[in-house]
Amino acid sequence: MSEVNIEKELKRQEEITDMLKDILLLRYDNRQPLAFVHTYGCQQNVADSEKIKGMLINMGCALTEDKNEADIIIFNTCAVREHAEDRVFGNVGQLKQLKRKKPSLLIALCGCMMEQQHIAEKIYKSYPYVGLVFGTHVIHKFPELLYNAVTGGKRLIERGYDDGQIYEGIPMRRDGSFKGWLSIMYGCDNFCTYCIVPHVRGRERSRLPEDVLGEARSMVNAGFKDITLLGQNVNSYGKGLDIQTDFASLLKSAAEIDGDFWLRFMTSHPKDASKRLIDVMAENNKICNHLHLPFQSGSNRVLKQMNRRYTREKYLEIVEYAKSRIPDLSITSDVIVGFPGETYEEFCETLDLIREVKFTSLFTFIYSPRVGTPAAKFPDPITHAEKAKWMDELLKLQEQIAAERCAGMVGKTYRVLVEEQAREGVLNARTQNNIIVELKAEPELIGTFQYAKVTEARNWILRGDIIKEP
How do the domains of the chain map onto residue ranges? Predict the structure, then answer.
């Protein structure tokens, strides 16, 4: 589809949006309809939900945080782990009674789960009160899909279609006013054997640098202080574009935008993490000294089975270079415990890598088989109970490392972004290296940069005082 046709398609969706304003008003007795949007999973899903919210507002809807008062309920789903899918099924099941009380309620499911054929079939057979199902590739068609679901009188499923295009200019209603997500690319070409993402998100495609940088400038001008660049593998940015560019160049250009703000990014794949990227981070103080670099396993054999395409040694080489270039670098990571065929000895290699790197924090998961991935067919003789014991061992080690790091921060001063109220009289603030500090302060400071001196570390919880700029 050419750019001209993309423009025409978005114009058509705008026209349908205008028609929906009147249709929805009539459907709900000349009352502004209320929409409830709930997001499961990663930050990319959050960014997608912000587009859905933007389109809903343009249709004349207001947003609500209470699903019981909603006229339209949308669940944006995640397929990465079985637990996330189980939560969706459980919460959708609870909507049955709500639909019975309110027949005009429209329930829609979208996102990664819906791109799986077996899931879509289960929704259709077991949840007849769900009126609309659509996948990740047709978010730009949401107005048309909603129009057909409302006026057609039939249940609608739209999935399995990917035209490989990027639709710029979709309306967006951001959840935050000073922290925000900025997608730079979509899809994934890595095909790790355990991961469903390439199957539900499609192949990699990058946004043009001028589109990314234009959105970044608009966010800074709107007052955003913390911007996270998003991609399934940001280090692959630029592949497929007609111009020569890469993620390091994009990040450098974003850091040159005028304004007082921080830049973060995720996720960064170790096989593509370059020294040039690390150098760009080291040379720009707007880029946070935080690197999220998933290693998944410390065993080379397991990494090969995962199709990660790097070795333990390559990973540690990247980490060593990054630590040498960036003072006080914070490294976080993802770990899978109990990959099919993994032995306890191989799991211990993961523990050894954790000891060596000393991660700030870890996102840890017991392996969850995903239908349609190669790993789901691998022999898996270790019981879930045994894997849970391994997980406990890993968590205790990481808690010890995190506590030691936090203790080493006592007495030091950091620039922080005040994010939210933790409890009465206490606010949570975040350092550049992605560590939370509790501060006694008033809510008026939320959304501002402050300087905080760390006064106390309790395990991995930091407390501090706001001070004047040092």
Answer: 3-158, 176-288, 289-407, 413-467
Q: CB-based burial of residue 199 (10 Å sphere; 0-12 exposed, 13-18 middle, 19+ buried)?
A: middle
What phi, psi does 77 have (nearest 5°)? Answer: -100, 165
Query: What per-residue confidence (pLDDT) applies to 4?
Result: 53
**pTM for the model:** 0.94
Distances 230 to 34, 131, 185, 341, 452 between C-alpha atoms, Å: 29, 31, 7, 32, 28
Task: Tell me which residue has tokens 């396993």.
Answer: 297
Average pLDDT over residues 109-128: 94
Q: Which of 90, 100, 434, 120 is nearest to 288 (CA)?
A: 434
Could you give the angle at which helices 384-407 and 344-357 cross, rounded to 10 degrees?
10
Strand partners, 180: 227
Least confident range from 2-11, 99-108, 247-256, 317-326: namely 2-11
Query: 293, 318 in Cβ contact below 8 A?
Result: yes
In order of 90, 193, 196, 267, the CA distances from 72 in angstroms are: 18, 37, 28, 32
Give Cα 322 to chain centroid, integer Å.
Answer: 24
289-407 CATH fold:
Transcription Regulator spoIIAA (3.30.750)
CATH of domain 413-467: 2.40.50.140
Q: Does 2 have pLDDT greater than 50?
A: no
CATH architecture of 3-158: 3-Layer(aba) Sandwich (3.40)
Residue-wise pLDDT tens digits, 234-257: 999 998 899 999 999 999 999 999
- Helical H runs in 191-262? 197-201, 209-221, 247-255
Tokens of 427: 């606010």
For residue 426, the Cα-to-chain-centroid distance in whole angstroms is 27
Q: What confidence tens digit (pLDDT) does each residue in 355-380 have?
A: 999 999 999 999 999 999 999 999 99
Distance, CA of 420 to chain centre? 19
Beta bridge partners of 38: 75
Residue range 444-453, pLDDT digits in tens: 999 999 999 9
**Is residue 24 classed exposed, middle or buried when 0-12, 13-18 and 19+ CB atoms within 10 A define those classes?**
buried
Quote the pLDDT of residue 400: 95
Q: For 301-313, how does the pLDDT look when each residue is reduced to its tens digit (9 = 90+)? A: 999 999 999 999 9
Name the DSSP letter for residue 159. Answer: -
Smallest CA-to-CA distance from 207 within 175, 163, 242 is with 242
